[in-house]
Structure formats: C-alpha cells, structure tokens
Amino acid sequence: MDNALSRIALASPPTLLEIFLYVIVASFLLVTIYRLTLHPLAKYPGPLRYKISGWPLVYQCYKGNRHLYSLRDHEKYGPIVRTSPNSLSFSSPKALHQIYGSRAINVRKSKFYETLDAGPGGATTHTEIDKERHAARRRILNHAFSEAAIRETETFVIDNVGKFIKLIGPNDSENDEGWSTPRNMSDWLNWMAYDIMGNLVFGKSYNCLGSEEHREMPRLMTEGTKFGYWFAYLPCAPVLQPLAKTSFMQWIGGDTVRDNAVLGEYAISQFEERAALEKRRLEGKEKPPTHKDLMHYLLNNFDPKTGMRPTTDELKGDTLSLIGAGADTIATTLSAAFFYLARNESVLRRLLSEIRNTFGCLDEIHSSPKMDSCVYLNACIEETLRLAPAVASQLPREVMRGGIVIDGEYVPEGIVVGVPSYVVHHTREAFPQSWSFQPERWIAGSELADHSTVVSKEDIARAREAMCPFSLGSRGCIGKTFAYMEMRIALASVLWSYDFKEVGGRERKGGGGRDLEIGRERQDEFQIFDCFGADRDGPVLRFRKRE
C-alpha cells in the first residue's frame, strides 16, 4: 500500500497537452450525450453520425451526392429526418409550402448563405438574409424581369439559339450519312446559356459558342460553386467566414479558389465597363441600345417603397450571381431534356410531331399563341424539371424566434429546416411511377405508361403542389418566366431543325450504371452532381438535318 501511494506521489503532473486532450475528449463526450438525449431534435430519426456531427453533411456536399443521401434517408426513416445536430429535412409537399410558401412564414435564410457571399462583390439578392432588405432588393430586380423587359430580351435568346442551331449540325467535312460528329450537350448548352446570360445581363455575348477564349468561364463558375457549397456547411464556417476574401481562402481552396478569384475580377471588370457605358448613354455621349439589358434596369431603378438603391458592390455580386444561376438552370434542364428525349422514342416522336406541325419555319419559333399551344412541349419541360432539378437538395431555412409548426411538429428557434427538391419530386402520392419520364402526367385526360391511370385535373394539381424546381414564394427564382421562355425556344428550335440520336459505346454519357455509387444505378436517369447548382456530363448526341 505504501509503495502504491509513493508511486502516485512521485508521478509527474499531467502536461498542458494532456490536459488539453482530456478536455477535448470530455467535451466531445458531453456534447455527444447532449445531442443524443437532451437536444430538442433528439427524438427525430436519422443516422447516428448525423446526430453527432455536421461533418457527414460536408462530405456529401463535397462529393456532389447529398440529394442521393437525402432520398435514401427519407425512404428509410420517413418524412422527417435529422440531417445534422441542428437541422431537419422534410419530404412532404405540405412541409414544402409551410417552409417556403410565403414571406410571412417564421423562417429566414440560414447562416449558410453568409459564407456564400465570399465571392466577388457584396451580398447578392439571392443570399440576402435580412427579410426587409431582401424584399427591397427584389422589388428593384422586378423591373428587370417584368413582362415588358422579358419581351425586349427575347431577341438575345433567339439570336444565340440561332447560332447554336448552326454550330451543332453537320458541316461539310462531316459526311457520315448526313450525321454530325458527336456533341456533348452539357458542354454545348453551357456555352449557349452563358452567351445568352452575357447578352441578358451586360448586353454583349461572351461568344463561348464561337470561340474557345471564354469557354473556361462555365467550368470555373461550377468549380467555384462546388467549393463554396461544402465550405459553407463546415461546422467551423462562421469562424472562417471573415477570412473568406483573404489569401487564407486560396490556401484552403487551392487552384479552384485562385481561378474563381480571376473569374470574379473579370466579371467585375465587365460590370464596371457596362456601368461606364450606361453613364455615357445618360449623358448623351452614346446612342441608346436597341434592346435594354438587365444592367440598364439595375442601374436606373430604386425600390419604390423605401427609396433604397443597391450599392455598387451589391450590384457586382448580383450580376455574377444572375449569370451563374441563370446559365446553370438552363443548361442543366436542356441537357436533361435531350437525354430523356433520346431515350424515350415515343415521347420524342410525339414532340417532333407537335413542333413541326405547329411552326411553319424557324422564324415562327418565339413567344406567341402558337408557342402557348404546344402543350406537349411544356409537359416535357415540366417533367424534365421534376426529374433533374438544377438545385437538387434543400434550400436551408433557419427558424426564427417563436418557432414554427411543420408537418404537425413544433420546431424551435434556431433549427435549420428544408425540403430537398429531388426527394419531394419523387413523392409517390404526387407522382405515380415517379422514376419514369412521362410528360403525360402533366396533361389532363392522358394515360400513364402502364395504361392503368388516366390523369385528372386533381392529379395535376397534386403534382404541382409537390413541384419546386424554382423554389416557392417571395424568395423563389425571379427569372422563372425568362427561363421557361428560353427553354421553349431552344428546345423547339432544335427539334424543328434536326433529327438526333444518342451515341453508344464508351461515348455514351449522362445515365447511371451498376458500377456507380448507390443511388446512381438507374441507367435511364440523368445524373446530376449536386453543388447548389448541378454539374453534369452528357448526353452525347449526333444531329442530322430533318427529313
């Protein structure tokens, strides 16, 4: 006994490092116990690792498969899943409207959006957390997306689509029975979309279609978005956020962040050049434009309710955000549309018939009663948006003081909630045979593929309640009307001009496969990689002038 006591007495005291490690381990154990037992979300189901730490979510965002995990988790655990220590994911259409449906709902954009502001310029309208300031900035943007403004910008779309049509078809050197060489549609549609958005925002095309000079821009924008997506979900993001615009960020993000900084500087130079042009026009030193671009409206309008004008930094942020988000949505949706049309012959035949019987020539393809009459075209676009939403995961919302009831569950202040669009778009109650591409589900009186279901108006209403490709409410996509106009014109123009087919063998891209990760095994599902946008590859098509 004496020997034991003497050994204890002679033992050296713990070092500072050992004390630090003891504190870390004890803190981790205490936090883990709290999160599993006493935390307000302790009762909700979900994988154990989600309940303990936010790092699994970061990993999913980094890999681009968060939407796949969300679907798998909801299938296993039900309509409410705890996705991190402080967040819940919901999957019902009811929850969708209770979270995003109106500005009056007691939620706001989460702190995730603060880190997204690490890019060039100031906070964008898209990332603005303050409800009142967001509403004011949204009212300014409304001028740029009014019906009259969209009519003016349609010429930008038609001109760039016309250029796209000429370039994707066969040329004189391609003489394989009139078929073009293979075209990766994700690339070509990216270039077209960025050219359109350059025209729309700054009044001039980037000429990605005609020159390789600016073709890196879409890739750099996507890579920057990927980095920002997982970085914004880091548990330590609030601590790192003040360093986001310093060289420290380049040390973390490497070439991706450095390249994105160059892209940001280029976009800012474009903004400053366009702002200087607007000033000269107002002074009478330059002729007024034939068609007004978005910058005209942003530089010359203010919020009619508060008198607020956005700062120059905020305008810089908005222009880059509008170009990136607008181009990504259009390119993703059209890539997916060509994929599904190429793999669904009966749908393609019906759509070709509608387009070619409705329009007598390419010049007739524009917004008009004829375009409005293309019911099947609209249904194909809607079905594509359902299966391949450009933002596949949830848009995070933080519950404000007083809490909120979602799907009958009281959720307290500070909890982050959301509904993943990829999940709710596959709700079986709203979308029977949810994995198949069936535009008929959007047309009353049509039969679904198994001939057991005739679509009613009530079915369509139920489906629309579960659709959110552009989000909902006051914070939904302000460019939704423009996006639909662009997609209709582009898709109708290609189908009027060309026949097309998908290539086979190793060049075949876009679909899933059994050799891919869980959730990507469906060969006839267009694969998107979630990055708060959508990265993609394919389909690869060949074109021939219509017979």
UniProtKB/TrEMBL annotation:
<dbReference type="InterPro" id="IPR050121">
    <property type="entry name" value="Cytochrome_P450_monoxygenase"/>
</dbReference>
<dbReference type="InterPro" id="IPR002401">
    <property type="entry name" value="Cyt_P450_E_grp-I"/>
</dbReference>
<keyword id="KW-1133">Transmembrane helix</keyword>
<feature type="binding site" description="axial binding residue">
    <location>
        <position position="477"/>
    </location>
    <ligand>
        <name>heme</name>
    </ligand>
</feature>
<dbReference type="GO" id="GO:0004497">
    <property type="term" value="F:monooxygenase activity"/>
</dbReference>
<keyword id="KW-0479">Metal-binding</keyword>
<keyword id="KW-0812">Transmembrane</keyword>
<protein>
    <recommendedName>
        <fullName>Cytochrome P450 oxidoreductase</fullName>
    </recommendedName>
</protein>
<dbReference type="GO" id="GO:0005506">
    <property type="term" value="F:iron ion binding"/>
</dbReference>
<dbReference type="InterPro" id="IPR017972">
    <property type="entry name" value="Cyt_P450_CS"/>
</dbReference>
<comment type="similarity">
    <text>Belongs to the cytochrome P450 family.</text>
</comment>
<dbReference type="GO" id="GO:0016705">
    <property type="term" value="F:oxidoreductase activity, acting on paired donors, with incorporation or reduction of molecular oxygen"/>
</dbReference>
<dbReference type="GO" id="GO:0020037">
    <property type="term" value="F:heme binding"/>
</dbReference>
<dbReference type="GO" id="GO:1902181">
    <property type="term" value="P:verruculogen biosynthetic process"/>
</dbReference>
<keyword id="KW-0349">Heme</keyword>
<keyword id="KW-0560">Oxidoreductase</keyword>
<keyword id="KW-0503">Monooxygenase</keyword>
<dbReference type="InterPro" id="IPR001128">
    <property type="entry name" value="Cyt_P450"/>
</dbReference>
<dbReference type="Pfam" id="PF00067">
    <property type="entry name" value="p450"/>
</dbReference>
<dbReference type="InterPro" id="IPR036396">
    <property type="entry name" value="Cyt_P450_sf"/>
</dbReference>
<dbReference type="GO" id="GO:0016020">
    <property type="term" value="C:membrane"/>
</dbReference>
<keyword id="KW-0472">Membrane</keyword>
<feature type="transmembrane region" description="Helical">
    <location>
        <begin position="19"/>
        <end position="38"/>
    </location>
</feature>
<keyword id="KW-0408">Iron</keyword>
